[in-house]
Amino acid sequence: MNAQPLLEVRDLHLSVRAPNGNRAPVLRGVDLSLARGQVLGLVGESGGGKTMVGKAILGVLPDGARVERGSILFDGKDVLAMPGSARRMLSGKSMSMILQNPMTALNPVMRIEDQITDVLRLHMRMDKAAARERALEMLDAVQIRDPRRVLRQYPHELSGGMCQRVVIAIAFACNPALIVADEPTTALDVTVQHQVLRLIRDLQMKSQTCVLFVTHDLGVVAKVCDAVSVIFAGRIIESGPVREVFEAPRHRYTRALLEAAPRYDRPETALHPISPALREELTQEIVHTYRIPGHAV
Ligand SMILES: Nc1ncnc2c1ncn2[C@@H]1O[C@H](COP(=O)(O)OP(=O)(O)O)[C@@H](O)[C@H]1O
Ligand SMILES: [Mg+2]
Prior knowledge:
By secondary structure, the protein is an alpha/beta fold. It has helices spanning 50-58, 84-93, 102-105, 112-123, 128-141, 147-152, 160-173, 190-207, 218-224, 242-247, 252-260, 276-289; strands at residues 7-17, 23-34, 39-43, 66-74, 77-78, 95-98, 178-182, 210-215, 227-232, 235-241. Helix content is 41%, strand content 23%.
C-alpha cells in the first residue's frame, strides 16, 4: 500500500480576468489531499470555486483563468510543472471527468459506440473489436439493459439518466487513477440521482479509483464520500473524515452549512438558512487574509 496521497493540491491560487481587465482572485490557497482508493467530497455553496479546482486539476482552465501560485501533485509529481504534451497525456489517460450535464459531455452526432470506443482506442491502444467488447462490458457495468442496442443509439435517443450512465462508463473505461465528478447528479431527477450515486460508488469501490466528488449537497457527501473538504470563497476552511466533520464540525461555516441542509434521516428537523451576515463576514476575513501582494482582492 502506497501511503503517499494520489493527489495533493497545495496552496493553489488562481485568478481570472475581470471585465475591466484586472485580475480577480478565485482560489486563495486551496489545499486538498486525496488518499488512494478514496472519495473526497469538495463541498460548498455556488461560486466558492469548486469547479475551478476540478478544472485546474484536469488542466482545462477557461480562457483568462491563470494559476498564480501553488502546486498540484499527482502521484508525487507537480502537474503544473510538466510540459504541455506530458500534461495532456496524463489528463487523458490517468484522469477523467464526469460533468453535471451529460448532454454537453457527449457528442450529439456520434453513436454511443464510437464515443466509448474512440477513447479506448486512443488511450488504451485497443483495436476495434477489443474496444467494442470493452464498451459492452462497461455498459453492462453501469447497468444499462440491452447494451448492444444502446451502442447503436445517439445521445438524444436516451434519457438524461441513461446518458449520465454512458458518461460514467466512459470515465471508468480506461481505468483512470482519478475521476473528477463535478455535480454529476445535480441535473438528474431525484429518483435517478440516487441510482447514479450508488453506481458511481459501486464502480469506485470495485476499481479503487480515486474520486474528487464536487457537490453543493451535503446529503450527497454523506452518501458517497469517505472524506470531505469544505470550500468557501476559494479557500478550504475544514477537511476531515466525513463522520468527524458531520458529527463535530469545527468551523462555524461548516456548522451553518450543516444546519442549512435537509436531513434525509431526520426530515422533521428545522432548517436554518445560512445568514448573509455570516457569509459577508467570512468573505471579508478570507479576502483580506489570503491575498497575493500586488493583486486586487
Ligand atoms: N470562465 C470564467 N471566467 C471568469 N470567471 C469565472 C469563470 N468561471 C468561474 N468564474 C468565477 O470563479 C468563481 C468560482 O466559480 P466556480 O468554480 O464555478 O464555483 P462553483 O463551482 O463552486 O460554483 C466565481 O466567482 C465565478 O464567477
Ligand atoms: Mg461548479
